[in-house]
Amino acid sequence: MSADGKITAGENTNVQDWSSKEDLKYFSALIKKSSLIIMGRKTYETAKENMRLSKKNLRVIITGNPKKYEREKIENQLEFSNTPLAPLIKSLEKRGYKKGLLVGGAKTNASFIKANLINEMWLTVEPVILGKGRNLFLESPLMTSLKLLSSKKLNKKGTLLLKYDFFTI
Ligand SMILES: NC(=O)c1ccc[n+]([C@@H]2O[C@H](COP(=O)([O-])OP(=O)(O)OC[C@H]3O[C@@H](n4cnc5c(N)ncnc54)[C@H](OP(=O)(O)O)[C@@H]3O)[C@@H](O)[C@H]2O)c1
């Protein structure tokens, strides 16, 4: 996200227009080693062109209308779900997925935080102000305390990788 808490530059969906190559490198490596990746339908629509599906990871797309994506579905690689989030996570656990990487966007992040399903947040803060755009969590009243676990400077201009633990109060 930007230093002012935005995950998009206005309506521009291309994050790489303002994020660093160090973030991209870190994120790509993280995706490769995550067996379960979860995202909202709008994030999927913007990312799917560059997405490399693999038998090594399952991507679950949260949507109210999974039927619309029936033809894109690939069992155990790309699935679409409208199951309420807590039962969805339980069913994924039963399939052997012990943790998952939630990659946004704003609406889906808010859905997961409200369902109390986030236990850590890994945030790359880019030294840029965007002014307008989607917030990290879609606007809604939240009260969540975090504990900083680690911080790392990824490049000379000061892109920060922050890792937080979650405490809901
Ligand atoms: N900077 C970054 O690191 C970063 C990361 C991720 C995304 N982004 C950007 O964020 C933008 C997308 O964010 P967004 O907030 O607009 O959308 P989003 O969260 O990616 O997707 C929203 C959609 O997900 C589905 N959804 C979310 N929660 C749901 C729930 N509880 N139950 C059922 N369906 C649910 C709905 O799909 P349906 O409408 O199909 O029902 C909803 O319209 C894109 O521009 C993307 O590039 C940036």
Q: How would you briefly describe this protein structure?
A:
With 169 residues, the chain is of the alpha/beta class.
Description:
This protein is 23% helix and 24% strand. The chain has a four-stranded parallel β-sheet with strand order 3-2-1-4. Strands 5-7-6 form a three-stranded antiparallel β-sheet, with no helix packed on it. It is built from four helices and seven strands; from the N terminus they run αβαββαβαβββ. The longest helix is centred in the N-terminal third of the chain and has 13 residues, at 21-33. It is globular and about 40 Å long. It has one domain (15-168): 3-Layer(aba) Sandwich (Dihydrofolate Reductase, subunit A), CATH 3.40.430. It binds NADP nicotinamide-adenine-dinucleotide phosphate. NADP nicotinamide-adenine-dinucleotide phosphate binds at residues 1, 7-8, 13, 15, 40-43, 46, 62-65, 82, 85, 103-108, 111, 134, 138.
Provide key terms for this protein.
169 residues; alpha/beta; globular; three-stranded antiparallel sheet; binds NADP nicotinamide-adenine-dinucleotide phosphate; 4 helices
Number of helices: 4
Give, in spatial order, the strands making up the sheet with the most strands: 3-2-1-4
The unique ligands bound to this protein are: NADP nicotinamide-adenine-dinucleotide phosphate
What summary fits the major beta sheet? 4 strands, parallel
Mean pLDDT: 95
- Estimated radius of gyration: 16 Å
CATH homologous superfamily assignment = Dihydrofolate Reductase, subunit A
CATH class: Alpha Beta
Shape category: globular
How many domain modules?
Answer: 1
Distance between termini?
24 Å
Q: What is the element string, with H for helices and E for strands?
A: HEHEEHEHEEE
The CATH architecture can be given as: 3-Layer(aba) Sandwich
Structural class: alpha/beta
User: What proportion of the residues form beta strands (DSSP E)?
Assistant: 15-25%
